[in-house]
Amino acid sequence: MRRTRAAAASAVTVSLLAAVTACGGGSSTDGGSNDSPKTLTYWASNQGPSIEADKKTLTPELKKFEKQTGIKVKLEVIPWSDLLNRILAATTSGQGPDVLNIGNTWSASLQATGALLPWDAKNFGKIGGKDRFVESALGSAGETGSDPAAVPLYSMAYALYYNKKMFEDAGISGPPATWDDLVADGKKISKDDKWALGAEGANLSENIHHVFVFAKQHGADFFDAEGKPDFTSDGAVAAVKQYVDLMGKDKVVAPGNAEYAQNQSLQDFAKDKTAMVLWQTAAATLKAHGMSDDEWGVAPVPVQSGTPGADTAVNSMVAGINMAVFKNTDNIDGALKFVNFMTSVDEQTILNKTYGSIPPVKAAQQDPAFNTPALKVIRDTLAESAAPLPQVANESQFETAVGTAVKELFAEAAAGRPVTTASVKEKLDEAQQQMPKK
Amino acid sequence: MTVTAEPAVGKEAPPGATAPAPRRRTGRVRRIALPYLLLLPALLLELLVHLVPMVIGIVMSFKELTQFYIRDWGAAPWAGLDNYSLSVDFDAPIGKALLHSFFVTCAFTVLSVGLCWLLGTTAAVYMQENFRGRGFLRAVFLVPYALPVYAAVITWAFMFQRDNGLVNHVLHDQLGLTDSPSFWLIGDNSFIALLVVSVWKGWPFAFLIVMAGLQNIPKELYEAASIDGAGMLQQLRRITLPSLRPVNQVLVLVLFLWTFNDFNTPYVLFGKAAPEAADLISIHIYQSSFVTWNFGTGSAMSVLLLLFLLVVTGVYLALTSRGRKAADV
């Protein structure tokens, strides 16, 4: 009896443990078909203030498409926290949508899975050609030298948002153009529980976006020409240190920002607690936090010296959303028609206007709506001084490894412990050793 | 009527001396088969939900299943023991991080299970007495167990925020116990934050189970003991704890497995990258597979974890059963 009970307990134990090892199953089918030409499933990323708001924005447009082509589009808006996992699961099981949005920095990683339809000349031909798109946006759509894995849908870039009232109170006449200026201005602002700059220190992607730009400004890259990780070069170490020093050494970022990962720095900005944030498109969120448009200004992200431009004067990553087609779709013609529709000048204007982003389709940029002072800064940045994040298959792993290293360094700085060149290098070395060897 | 009824009876019980035997046999077969039949759906589901994925997980651990192959697992090359040797190479960063995570998880589990058991047992023992408001207190104690984990842990995450959180407001602003507001969600304190939430979430279960166990101890034992002059502590030591032994055996095991494998609490509290001090093994494995897209290594780590837990469980059951056998004698 006792033995039976022990056996039963062991069986229960095995079942409890099994949850850990559980993972899905795989399948593979190549190329698309036209087996179900009247329907499409579309996974949209969350671009507006909420999932519901996005559904409201997109549904009328999808109805238009249905009217034009007779194809019914089944829409699902997926929050950012789930999107990559959902795509991975769809890739693994082969049960995915026909068309989907992806963060443009994932392009090369997802391209490596082979799940996405390559945009060769023939496919581009069906949506009006490659030349319709802005070059920098196309540069963030897949591994360099291969056909893009997606086409650009919405483009964004970082800008410096500043709180006009706090600048005025501190006697500062205008936004800083260089990091030295920012630190000097920041020291005037950072007192009495007010701080100069906000940071999302526990958000891995944000950390990556910023240290990437700092690295460019120090003449370094996190990957060498062959796509191998190179995290410990002097430039990369100096870049990470300069970013974390804004909190640790320069003391212009509040220590509490080390645990921010949910856009709390925008709340602080709207509440007059932080005078500046580096953000992509903050207007809608700031409005939601009760800040009117004339209370903040927008300027280019600072550089080391001079003005933003190419190479060491880069001041933003090319941010944005791409649209991809799952290779095993059963409505390949419909999917291409849908991408053509979403990248048409009319739709690009309507959607980018709503989301506060810049259309990556050149012809759509002419609309005056994209000429406001705020959007002009972003547009100029995209055109002149933005660089794509490394387009390598291991980009996703890089974001996790280096993003976590920066998060841990911020935690050190926040706790008042010194962050030195040696300690930064050690962390980056650990991160590099975690990268896949192949 | 009787005429039509007769053949039916005859069919069921044909005349002859051997007739009753097969009937009894079918009856016995039915009786024996019935429990298996009733268990069949559960068994099938168990296979489908747990055992099949587990076997797939074990197969995956021998493959080089990176992003290049997830679309077609069959094409992934066999990796032999590479994933395992990578996981247990404690001089290299991946193995070192796994070992660190393992130690953190062990310390966390021992403390959490110990505290959950202690709190649960203490509360259950005191709640045995009849007093005003007992029902209300029982209900309040069970609230953390009834709340959805996700919502509850998000609330804790808000409370642990450095600048606007309730915890620092009380500890620093009101009581002045710390020189400056502490970080709870990053750095070394994150271990304490994780432990607090885990105990808060887990002790009501211990309370519930021990309370049920206490109902089965005959009152006469306590009455006899108190007549013999045994105080409360002695009663606890000589009657309550020995009587609860079989209950505790299962309770501690279940709490151990739940706590060791806890994923939700650290994930909701810290996000995808837990601080080093609170890097529990489940989230470490998640990061090693889902975030870095290396499902082979992640699976190998899972299999190692599975083996470890099986060994611990086996040893635990063997030891406690032997102890009980000795006590029974």
UniProtKB/TrEMBL annotation, chain A:
<dbReference type="Pfam" id="PF01547">
    <property type="entry name" value="SBP_bac_1"/>
</dbReference>
<dbReference type="InterPro" id="IPR050490">
    <property type="entry name" value="Bact_solute-bd_prot1"/>
</dbReference>
<feature type="signal peptide">
    <location>
        <begin position="1"/>
        <end position="24"/>
    </location>
</feature>
<protein>
    <submittedName>
        <fullName>Sugar ABC transporter substrate-binding protein</fullName>
    </submittedName>
</protein>
<dbReference type="InterPro" id="IPR006059">
    <property type="entry name" value="SBP"/>
</dbReference>
<keyword id="KW-0732">Signal</keyword>
Automatic annotation (TrEMBL), chain B:
<keyword id="KW-0812">Transmembrane</keyword>
<keyword id="KW-1133">Transmembrane helix</keyword>
<comment type="similarity">
    <text>Belongs to the binding-protein-dependent transport system permease family.</text>
</comment>
<protein>
    <submittedName>
        <fullName>ABC transporter permease</fullName>
    </submittedName>
</protein>
<dbReference type="Pfam" id="PF00528">
    <property type="entry name" value="BPD_transp_1"/>
</dbReference>
<dbReference type="InterPro" id="IPR051393">
    <property type="entry name" value="ABC_transporter_permease"/>
</dbReference>
<feature type="transmembrane region" description="Helical">
    <location>
        <begin position="191"/>
        <end position="214"/>
    </location>
</feature>
<dbReference type="InterPro" id="IPR035906">
    <property type="entry name" value="MetI-like_sf"/>
</dbReference>
<keyword id="KW-1003">Cell membrane</keyword>
<feature type="region of interest" description="Disordered">
    <location>
        <begin position="1"/>
        <end position="24"/>
    </location>
</feature>
<feature type="transmembrane region" description="Helical">
    <location>
        <begin position="139"/>
        <end position="159"/>
    </location>
</feature>
<feature type="transmembrane region" description="Helical">
    <location>
        <begin position="33"/>
        <end position="62"/>
    </location>
</feature>
<keyword id="KW-0813">Transport</keyword>
<feature type="transmembrane region" description="Helical">
    <location>
        <begin position="299"/>
        <end position="319"/>
    </location>
</feature>
<dbReference type="GO" id="GO:0055085">
    <property type="term" value="P:transmembrane transport"/>
</dbReference>
<keyword id="KW-0472">Membrane</keyword>
<feature type="transmembrane region" description="Helical">
    <location>
        <begin position="102"/>
        <end position="127"/>
    </location>
</feature>
<dbReference type="InterPro" id="IPR000515">
    <property type="entry name" value="MetI-like"/>
</dbReference>
<feature type="domain" description="ABC transmembrane type-1">
    <location>
        <begin position="102"/>
        <end position="316"/>
    </location>
</feature>
<feature type="transmembrane region" description="Helical">
    <location>
        <begin position="242"/>
        <end position="260"/>
    </location>
</feature>
<dbReference type="GO" id="GO:0005886">
    <property type="term" value="C:plasma membrane"/>
</dbReference>
